[in-house]
Specification:
The complex is a heterodimer of chains A (186) and B (253).
Chain A lengths: L34 E9 L9 E7 L23 E5 L6 E7 L4 E4 L2 E3 L2 E8 L6 E7 L3 H5 L16 E4 L3 E3 L2 E2 L9 E2 L1
Parallel strand pairs in A: 1-10, 1-11, 8-9
Antiparallel strand pairs in A: 1-4, 2-3, 2-7, 5-6, 7-8, 9-10
Chain B lengths: L51 E2 L4 H4 L5 H4 L20 E10 L9 E6 L24 E5 L5 E7 L4 E3 L5 E3 L2 E6 L8 E6 L10 H4 L4 H5 L4 E2 L10 E4 L2 E3 L7 H4 L1
Parallel strand pairs in B: 2-11, 2-12
Antiparallel strand pairs in B: 2-5, 3-4, 3-8, 6-7, 8-9, 10-11
The chains are: A mainly beta (186), B mainly beta (253).
Chain lengths: 186, 253
Amino acid sequence: MIYATTPSQTVGPYFAIGLPWPEGPHAIAPEHPDAIRITGTAYDGAGDPIADTLLEIWGADPDGRYADLWEHGGPATPGFRGFARFGEEGGDGRFELITLKPGPVRVSEGIVLAPHLDVTLFARGMLRHVVTRIYFGDEAQANAADPILARVPAERRETLIAQPTENGYRFDIHVQGPAETVFFAV
Amino acid sequence: MSEPSTEKAHAVYKPVTDTPDCYLRPGEDEQTPLDYPPYKSSRLRHPKQPLVFMPQTITEITGPQLGRERVLGELDNDLTRQHPGEPIGQRITLTGRVLDTEGEPLRGTLVEIWQANAAGRYRHRWDRWPAPLDPNFTGAGRAITDDDGRYSFTTIKPGPYPWGNHYNAWRPAHIHFSLLGRAFVQRLVTQMYFPDDPLFPYDPVFNSVRDERARQRMVSRFAMSASEPDWALAFEWDIYLRGPGATPFEEAL
């Protein structure tokens, strides 16, 4: 390392001027036959919904391919951005993102990552963002073998599991409190 | 609803030459703290449990490429020409480079900014302090870095403004920056400040960064040589994102 990183500062209360855009919450077109909806609410330490969250997800497509600069795993599903951003201030704190359900990713001999999405959460009051992961409640077998989930204390793993709904999954985030979501140092 | 898909695992991670295997991991004490009591709204919005160490997997060393989708027009990086008239205030140019900690420029990466107007008022329904809105100023811009990692904006210098954190609290003038870099772990949202702001000693957001040298990395420099005669004063600010690090995934497992 030659240079030190630029420090983080809070996204503040007014990010809606610059960051959200109409297609932002859609990592894939909502009409795509395999599109899933991930809905949830972020709560603060008092149990109140955080009405001014900025939430981003990043993950692989159903075949474990990434829409990144290097197209890891091969070119991803056409039209799939891999990334979605939700930021609506002054709402009820409920977020909704549309994406494809990610597939498992084999990273080396014998190591397979269970389907997951990386989540970045920003808000006024957070001087830097926090990172968590969404795993899927209908992937119990894959989850049991996931090397990252294995590092999470068993009694807290449930905070990372999104539960199936009619058209996708529900994933609530508790920034603080008795049901505090697991956040990662990456 | 898709079926459980354990059988479909066929994507094998084959590193490409210029993809770092993993990125630098700054220690907790080298980062802006999540719990900083002088900034009151951090009280209920920071995790109390320790963060769980995550080895960086393929998902963390890859990241979205939003360029073409977000930068639509040639005026996206000129905040003074987004309305029929010119905004009130001191016109400035703001340029700099996006680099990693090895000094490697990040080419083609998205830089998003937002800011208050010259009177310190944001065009946002929650901003109610009685300074005027400017009909000719929205306060949002986007740019893509060039081959040297350079971005460039034309805007007006934002004003300081009061806020409710404590008695007589004022934020130093700043411009919000959002960067994606190339990898999920390079994500950065921060604020750029202007040199010699007399409000620095009183601002808990600025001072949440405890190291003086680190704070200075958030302050732009005035550049007389880049200022344009009879047009605009120039400020320059380079941004450093996390660069390649030391511990690949499998060793960290």
